[in-house]
Amino acid sequence: MADKTNFPIGVRLSTDIEYRPDRPTPYRARVRWTDPTSKRRQSLSEGKESEEEAQEWLQAIIEAAQAGLTPSLATMKLAQYGEANMDLALRGLELKTLDPYLSGWRMRVVPALGHLAVRMITNGVVDRTVQNWIADEHSRSTVKNTIAVLVRVMEQAVRDGIIKVNPARVTGWQKLYKQAEDELLDPRALALPDWETLVALADGLVAASHDQYRGWGDVVIFAACTAARIGEVSGCRVGDIDTTQWIWTVRRQTTPAPGGLTDKGTKGKRARKVPIVEEIRPLIAQRILSAGPNPDARLFTGPRGGRISTAVLRDATHWDDVVTKLGYEHLRRHDLRHTGLTWFADAGVQVHVLRRIAGHGSLTTTQRYLHPDVHKITAAGAALSAHFSVLRAPRSLPSPIVVTR
């Protein structure tokens, strides 16, 4: 199927969609045009999972062309655009400001948003990304500098006519940051109460997903019972599981990167060992059997074998709707980790062992999961007071010695 359209900028676009059933994304949307300056024939194409998605991609390019943008500029990824225009975007800044801005761009903006076309970045996308940075426990100043450089780059895109409104000017993130800080002071409050609730959550997410994919429930149960991050669950390989001692060696995590998801080291940059409780061993055994003999095979994947992220899990399972129906509307994917650490603490795991399981850099962070048993605390105070009382008690004097002559 093909179509030709003339545009005000004098560029004649040819668009077509080709169906290729042997491809993972079988609908190839393609646009071709002759560059008015060089007179060279150029083209862009992108594979989509459905014909509707292919039509949407073409329509976005058509609308951009009507606004005077070439297809190349209309589909330019944020990472590419930022690299080409960073000097313009950051002009006028002092040198002491440039370093934190550029660091925020390289370490957070590009991995999270660099693979998206500039025109595809919305206020909602930026808002969710900022929330993820806050949930990853980046400092307030780090988040502020990262948002600032993104705002400047997107403002340059407004000046270039690529977008009309700057979507990076998000508001309220300071309030969200304060909320996250308050939650981290009492992470126990974020935990699910018991095993039955966890199973109900897993079943609800599976039921809400497309084709009721059981793997989503397995990811949720495994994450909670190992106190792991969703990215670490996604990065788990068959060879990381010791089924003799039932220990998982956490070596890597899956994180956003330019062009999609990638694997890198754990957040603490160190491997750690986590016990696998009896309740989930049958689940793990079945996953290993399904994955096959390759030790590098992923233990958990999406229904089509793809990598999992917290955003993928949220969207595929309609997470927000499910947790709201269960009465846990504030539950996030990261709260599965809070759940596991709380359960380990309540089971009596010593704090130094719990710290190793969690991979915490600070013992203070781990101590927040310990049960604040008021009775034991007051009893300890009473015992110390009793000890002081003994020390302060007057000692009886020895009987006087009577000397007789």
Give keywords.
405 residues; alpha+beta; 17 helices
Major sheet details: 4 strands, antiparallel
What characteristic shape results from the CA principal axes? Answer: globular
Beta strands, count:
9
Q: Give the N-to-C terminal Cα separation.
A: 134 Å
As a whole number of angstroms, the C-alpha radius of gyration is 29 Å
Strand portion, in percent? 5-15%
Order of helices and strands: EEEEHHHHHHHHHHEEEEEHHHHHHH
Count the helices. How many?
17
In round numbers, the mean pLDDT is 85
Strand neighbour order, sheet with most strands: 1-2-3-4
Structure write-up:
By secondary structure, the protein is an alpha+beta fold. The chain contains 17 helices and 9 strands. The strands form 3 sheets. The chain has a 4-stranded antiparallel β-sheet, covered by helices on one side. A hairpin with a 5-residue loop joins strand 1 and strand 2. Helix 3 crosses helix 6 (140-159), helix 8 (195-208) packs antiparallel against helix 9 (214-226) and helix 9 (214-226) crosses helix 14 (335-346). The longest helix has 20 residues, at 140-159. The model has no long low-confidence stretch (mean pLDDT 85).
